[in-house]
Amino acid sequence: MSDTLKNIGLGIILSSARFSVSVPRVHWGFGFTVNLYIHFPHKNPKQVLCMKMWADEKDLQLKNRLKGKEACKDWLGELEPFLDILTDKRGYDKMKWMLENPMPRCTPNTPTNVFYDWVEKWDDFNESYINRQRERE
C-alpha cells in the first residue's frame, strides 16, 4: 500500500510543481540577482502525506515554497526521469539552465562584459525556447 501512496504522491508532484526563475534588480554587484524556487501549491493533508512519502524516500525537502540552489538541484535530479510527464516542463528547463549556467559573481576584478555575455546567453536560451514552442504548435 505504501508504494501505491508514494506513486500517487509522485503523480501529484509531477502535475502540480511549479519551477520559478526570476532575475530581479538589486543595489549591489551587477545590479541583478537570481531567485530560484519550486512551488508546491496547497493540497489537502492526505495529498501532502503522499507527496511527503515520495520526497522522504528520495531524501528531499518538501515545503510549500522550496528555495535554494542545492534543494532545487536535488529536486531536478530526482524528477529528471519523469520529464515526459512533468506539467511545468518550461519552468524545469529554465531552472536547469540557470543552475548549469550561474550568473557570474561580481568582484572588483570581474569585467562587465562577463555579465553581458551571460545575459546574452540567458536571453538566447529563452528566445530559442519560445521559438521551439511555436514550432510545436
Describe this protein's structure.
- The chain has 137 residues and is mostly helical.
- The protein is built from 5 helices and 3 strands.
- It is elongated.
- The model has no long low-confidence stretch (mean pLDDT 90).
Number of strands: 3
As residue ranges, the low-confidence spans are none
Q: What structural category arises from helix and sheet content? A: mainly alpha
Beta-strand content: 5-15%
Percent of residues in helices comes to 55-70%
Alpha-carbon distance between the two ends: 40 Å
The oligomeric status of these chains comes to single chain
Shape: elongated
For the residues shown, what is the average pLDDT?
Answer: 90
If you compute it from the alpha carbons, what radius of gyration comes out, rounded to the nearest whole angstrom? Answer: 17 Å
- What is the succession of H and E elements? HEEHEHHH
What topology, given as strand order, has the largest sheet?
A: 1-2-3
Give a brief rundown of this model.
This protein is mainly α. It has helices at 2-16, 45-57, 69-79, 89-100, 112-136; strands at 18-22, 35-39, 65-67.
Q: Which short descriptors sum up this protein?
A:
137 residues, mainly alpha, 3-stranded antiparallel sheet, 3 strands
Topology:
Elements: H1 2-16, E1 18-22, E2 35-39, H2 45-57, E3 65-67, H3 69-79, H4 89-100, H5 112-136
Antiparallel strand pairs: 1-2, 2-3
Helix pairs in contact: 1-2, 3-4, 4-5
